[in-house]
Design brief:
This protein is an all-alpha fold. The protein has seven helices and no strands. The longest helix is centred in the middle third of the chain and has 32 residues, at 82-113. It is elongated, with a radius of gyration of 17 Å. The two termini are 17 Å apart.
């Protein structure tokens, strides 16, 4: 890998790791979303505020998946393994996309009516999304040519 790709992946790993502890949409933090809710969807009787106040163990929350993505990006930055970097990007983007899909599925009208308030100053979403997209672009940079 080129040197600047290592540096960009390192910065992206830090951004994703920090963003994993900040609010993504409204007051919902990744630690408020259980992996079961990502898999099965939010219960029908849940309101948006109930998702914000949900108590989930760390290893059963979305934060664990985002930190896994950050660790994989960090390993890719330090070792230079593109496959590990791609795996980290896929895990991170997949996790974030499933959350947004489940929120739209359960609270679509509420999110559409209040999107200006829900998406304003959500640094978690900015850091996670920006870090993953930048890592994706960095992994698309071709390898260095070997000189003979």
């Amino acid at each position: 890998m080129r040197t600047f790709v290592h540096l960009v992946l390192f910065a992206c790993a830090i951004a994703v790791a920090v963003g994993a502890f900040l609010p993504l949409v409204g007051g919902i933090q990744p630690s408020d979303v259980a992996l079961v809710d990502l898999r099965d969807g939010f219960p029908a009787e849940f309101t948006f505020e109930q998702v914000e106040t949900q108590a989930v163990r760390f290893y059963q929350s979305m934060t664990a998946l985002l930190l896994l993505a950050a660790i994989l990006l960090l390993i890719a930055a330090l070792v230079g393994a593109r496959a590990v970097g791609w795996l980290g990007v896929i895990v991170g983007i997949g996790t974030t996309a499933v959350l947004l899909w489940r929120l739209d599925d359960s609270f679509g009208d509420f999110v559409r009516d209040n999107y200006a308030d829900l998406l304003t100053d959500r640094w978690g979403l900015y850091l996670v999304g920006g870090g993953l997209l930048l890592a994706l672009l960095a992994l698309l940079v071709p390898k260095e040519r070997s000189t003979v």
